[in-house]
UniProtKB/TrEMBL annotation:
Single GO term (MF): hydrolase activity
Record's protein name: Transposase for transposon Tn5
Record GO biological process: DNA transposition
Organism, scientific name: Bythopirellula goksoeyrii
NCBIfam families: transpos_IS4_3 (NF033590)
Record's keyword terms, sorted: Hydrolase
Annotated ranges, domain Transposase Tn5-like N-terminal: 6-60
Lineage: Bacteria, Pseudomonadati, Planctomycetota, Planctomycetia, Pirellulales
Iron-sulfur found in the keyword field: no
Domain Transposase Tn5 dimerisation: 378-459
EC number(s) reported in the record: 3.1.-.-
């Protein structure tokens, strides 16, 4: 590819110039066949062993691998009018049937081992992924079983810095650094309901050149200072600004033991939502210990709630706490549109796990897997980037992304005709590549990441044949 994965790691400082060169070769080989194993993606035994040695090298770390990509991400953010910095957590299940990965810790219970990955991924306001702006990985040493009362006391007494929830504050601080280096861009840090932590709202958001806005889906029952009701009740008490209809997709719960309403099975339906907005000042929760007294916080709320849900079905409800303005209806609509982009990070995790198969990599230690994860984190972003770029910039020449041997071989394979003298538009080429992975070309749809990552592997093989045997 003309815009290559090698560019995303160029200049990585690994303490040895040869390691930097090796990183470029490794990421290009694995990126060409993201769904394949390391032996299948590399060229021969020598390259395979070199890749495994690279992941095992003491000078290599996820931070060093990702640093040039993070810098490139900030450059792309600086060119955007709005940057949505989405943070979320996914677990990496590294449980093995026999020999376990050294260094892996328990996930939700001790028989399931792995690690946690928490990235801050940047998107523009249309959902085009701009790259990884920050990331954190960790493992648990043990899981302590506690009753509800014991857990409540532990939450109140334990400093936020000693909890896993501190990652949300670290993510906001990383977003603040991005906003500081990109003063011309409106930066919004977005998170799901797990980030509904009061200390997050108290965290400073201003920078030397501006500020970073906050947008979090609320889930806690926080009490307002003025009306002494919950902030959900305060939002419900305001007038409806507008109504809208949304298509609710059906789902089947993955774990029958999960009783949370947001994870229960449901049928697809068309839901009618009422949207309201208000400003509230909420009372801080109690925190034991000195110097842990929190102050009141004033936030804007946007409530999108289903007015008449079917009997026995939990209503669709989004209560969004934000620092973005809500004076006009269009601003409220924009806030909901921004939060909808948050779902793109779930697609990113799916691309990383199913497309790049990071959990299936046969590496014996956690350190090697985390180095491998850093490489595939960039590859997963690139797959998503190509998938969205085709629809965002449809008339862009495909030769700005793909080499002539790539797009010409695909054209002849799909169209059964000689390639045109002028490179076709990028959107047309992306659709053809995705069709190699199972996408059915329709004007009303666009290809997803799964068909694209399968198609890209076919592109690599077709391009190799083109270069080896020639167009004739």
């Amino acid at each position: 590819m003309s815009v290559s994965l090698r560019d995303e790691v160029r200049g990585a400082k690994l303490g040895d110039h040869r390691l930097t060169i090796r990183l470029g070769k490794v990421i290009e080989s694995l990126g060409a066949k993201p769904n394949m194993s390391v032996p299948a993606a590399t060229h021969g035994r020598a390259e395979m062993e070199a890749a495994y040695r690279f992941f095992d090298n003491d000078k290599v770390s996820p931070e060093r691998i990702l640093k040039p990509h993070i810098e490139a991400t900030r450059e792309r953010v600086s060119q955007a009018e709005v940057a949505l910095l989405v943070q979320d957590t996914t677990d990496l299940d590294l449980t093995r049937p026999k020999q376990q990965v050294r260094g892996a810790g328990p996930l939700e219970y001790h028989t399931r081992l792995g690690a946690f990955f928490h990235p801050l991924v940047a998107f523009n306001e249309h959902g085009l992924p701009l790259g990884i702006a920050w990331q954190k990985c960790w493992t648990r040493s043990k899981i302590k079983k506690m009753t509800t009362n014991e857990k409540g006391r532990w939450v109140r007494k334990t400093p936020i810095e000693e909890k896993e929830t501190y990652r949300w504050i670290e993510g906001l601080r990383a977003a603040r650094e991005v906003a500081d280096t990109c003063p011309q861009t409106i930066c919004v840090c977005i998170a799901d309901s797990e980030a509904d932590v009061y200390e997050l709202y108290c965290e400073p958001r201003t920078t030397s050149s501006g500020e970073v806005h906050l947008l979090v889906r609320a889930c806690k029952k926080r009490i307002t200072v003025d009306t002494e009701v919950t902030w959900l009740e305060a939002a419900r008490a305001t007038k409806c600004l507008y109504q809208c209809s949304v298509n609710v997709s059906g789902r089947t719960t993955k774990r029958p033991t999960n009783k949370r309403k947001r994870h229960e099975s449901r049928e697809a339906r068309l839901a009618e939502l009422e949207v309201r907005a208000t400003t509230v000042t909420v009372r801080p929760p109690y925190r034991a210990g000195r110097n842990r007294k929190l102050s009141d916080v004033t936030l804007n709320l946007v409530l999108a709630e289903e007015s008449n849900p079917p009997n026995g079905v939990a209503p669709i409800q989004w209560l969004l706490a934000t620092t973005l303005p809500i004076e006009e209806v269009q601003q409220v609509r924009q806030i909901i549109a921004y939060y909808c982009i948050r779902w793109q990070i779930e697609i990113y995790f799916r691309t990383l796990k199913s497309g790049c198969r990071i959990e299936d990599r046969q590496l014996e230690t956690l350190e090697r897997i985390l180095n491998c994860l850093a490489v595939y984190a960039i590859i997963a972003w690139k797959v998503m980037y190509l998938s969205r770029l085709g629809s965002e910039c449809p008339e862009l020449s495909c030769e700005l992304i793909f080499e002539p041997s790539e797009w010409k071989s695909v054209w002849m394979t799909i169209r059964k005709a000689n390639p045109p003298s002028t490179p076709p538009p990028l959107n047309e080429m992306i659709r053809m590549i995705a069709s190699l992975g199972g996408y059915v070309i329709r004007q009303s749809t666009r290809p997803g990441t799964q068909t694209l990552w399968f198609g890209l592997q076919r592109v690599y093989d077709l391009s190799t044949a083109w270069q080896t045997f020639g167009p004739d």
